[in-house]
């Protein structure tokens, strides 16, 4: 069982703030034998959810900018920061993608910067000696990392596209594995690396 954070969609005409998750993310996780459980963006509900479900892992999903960088979902920031704190305290693997990776970078003291040419495109990367191509939908990124995080891959323009924590099971990628058709083998390998199943 894997706890998965959700984006916040604001429907102003209805006065609603809705939690949402790309259905393909559930399919991608299921293709690796994981049962995704969406987490509501209500920090006060998180302790009970964690205690009842005892997750094997956490996935921080994509969508929404961090509030600090102009985003409009501070409740999501709070929930994801709480998920990260709990995962680190209990050494539960945490896999972060796109916006989730940005939160992970920020949480470790890395200042994000606006990056051009990273929305609606693809990048070639070298990861563990393997050349690959990934999708890209982000406008925020980093070109350098504060310790203890370490770079796993960069795009051709020097933006960090994948990174990990050397002592904890934390791994972030700046792309969306669920948007690949068919799902990419490398994304599964990175997920398994995070889950300590390699």
Present the secondary structure layout.
Blueprint: E1 2-4, E2 7-11, E3 16-20, H1 23-30, E4 36-38, H2 43-53, E5 57-60, H3 74-90, E6 94-97, H4 99-107, E7 113-114, E8 119-127, E9 130-137, E10 140-141, E11 150-154, E12 160-164, E13 170-173, H5 185-194
Parallel strand pairs: 1-4, 1-5, 5-6, 6-13
Antiparallel strand pairs: 2-3, 7-10, 8-9, 11-12, 12-13
What does this structure look like?
The chain has 198 residues and is α/β, with parallel strands linked by helices. It has a single domain (2-194), classed as Rossmann fold (3-Layer(aba) Sandwich), CATH 3.40.50.880. Helices cover 28% and strands 30% of the residues. It has helices at 23-30, 43-53, 74-90, 99-107, 185-194, and strands at residues 2-4, 7-11, 16-20, 36-38, 57-60, 94-97, 113-114, 119-127, 130-137, 140-141, 150-154, 160-164, 170-173. The strands form 4 sheets. It has a 7-stranded mixed beta sheet with strand order 4-1-5-6-13-12-11, sandwiched between helices. Strands 2-3 form a two-stranded antiparallel ribbon. Strand 2 and strand 3 (16-20) form a beta hairpin. Helix 3 (74-90) crosses helix 4 (99-107). The longest helix has 17 residues, at 74-90. The chain starts with a strand and ends with a helix. The mean pLDDT is 96. Residues 37-179 form the Glutamine amidotransferase domain. InterPro entries: Class_I_gatase-like (IPR029062), GATASE (IPR017926), PuuD-like (IPR044668). Pfam families: GATase (PF00117).
